[in-house]
Amino acid sequence: MADGTMTGRRPMRHAGRVATHVVLIIGAIVMVGPFVWQLLTSLKAFSETTRVPPTFLPDRWEWSNYLQVFDLLPLGDMFRNTVLMTAGRTLAQLAFCSLAAYAFARLRFRGNNLLFGLFLSVLMVPSQLFLIPQYVIVQDLGWVNTLPGLIVPGMFSAFGTFLLRQFFLALPRDMEEAARLDGANPLQVFWHVALPLARPGLLALTILTALWSWNDFMYPLVVTTDPAKMPLSAGLGTLQGEHFTDYSILMAGSALATAPMVVAFILLQRHFIQGIAFTGSKG
Hints:
Layout: H1 2-42, H2 46-49, H3 64-72, H4 75-106, H5 112-120, H6 131-140, H7 147-151, H8 158-170, H9 174-181, H10 186-197, H11 199-215, H12 218-223, H13 232-237, H14 247-279
């Protein structure tokens, strides 16, 4: 009887695994499909990009579209601006968010939870509401069309503080207490004990901040008007005209701008998944 039950369960388990893999394959196609379409469109002539019904493969592979992107845009300057903006924002958020998160997680002071709740309330405000005040401040400081104007407003993050606070809360206190018994002050405990243990969280915040900074479009478009001072996201926006847009050139530029982040995510996806999974281990 037991053997018959086990035999009956095996086809059910096999069918469940097949169904799971079918769903995952469909999800992968849905996720990868836009990138494939982007690459194929970047290699088409303009007449093919507006053809109805659309064609999947190009009639002729137009590799020259990528060269035209460099002719239309100062792509080297934009790439440099994007790298510097992303690096500056990421390093600053790692510093400020880790310090604030450790204070909220480990230091006991009056109003800790209330202050943290007010801090998180920033997440409920749409980022678009900050555009005009940020622009006014940047303009008054003379930072329009400058790297500081791109970097400084992105140096702080309520989400990054929340993310790292979850990591610090999940860390065991034994090593920190041992360090205090050895005479370490709170800053030394943070630097030598807590921060190394929070490496997965720091890596997760690094990836999230880098992706957000690399793809940030609206704010850089507002505070930069010189193409040589724009990051890639804002620069590519200038390829879209009011009455005419060459989609093959636009997709070629988008593919060049996307490639570095895709490669970085592929190389670091294991750390990214581990970091996000560990974040939810303790509230």
